[in-house]
Design a protein that fits this description.
5 helices, 0% strand, flat, mainly alpha, 123 residues
């Protein structure tokens, strides 16, 4: 085998071979975008930990803050790490992402509903 095999491989192989910079430039990724996303993700992770650790909020407000931080963090991951935006992403991809979100909502909502019902029946 010669080194020319790398020119015939798909772009995803560049991540494995260590040639990350050309792939990042080709797809519009930048190191600044990844660092910004990482810093926001760390901040949005530390906020709920601090809120729980300080224990100065009511349980409902605590749940609301944690939920809000989780939802914002999902948006941060979609924007900065997966580079999904409404302007540049195809309609089929956004439809599949929306469908996945609906399925996750149904599964999480159904689980909470079942657990609440079981708790009600046990008490």
């Amino acid at each position: 085998m010669d080194r020319d095999i790398f020119s015939r491989l798909p772009a995803s192989v560049y991540l494995i071979t260590g040639m990350l910079e050309p792939v990042m430039q080709e797809h519009g990724h930048s190191l600044k975008s990844y660092i910004t996303g990482f810093i926001l993700a760390v901040i949005l992770t530390l906020i709920p930990f601090w809120v729980v650790w300080s224990s100065s909020f009511s349980a409902k407000l605590l749940f609301g803050i944690i939920t809000l931080c989780a939802l914002v963090q999902v948006l941060v991951h979609l924007r900065f790490f997966l580079n999904i935006s409404l302007k540049h992403t195809g309609k089929d991809y956004l439809t599949a992402l929306f469908f996945a979100g609906v399925l996750i909502f149904i599964m999480v909502g159904g689980t909470i509903w079942i657990l609440y019902d079981l708790n009600f029946r046990m008490m």
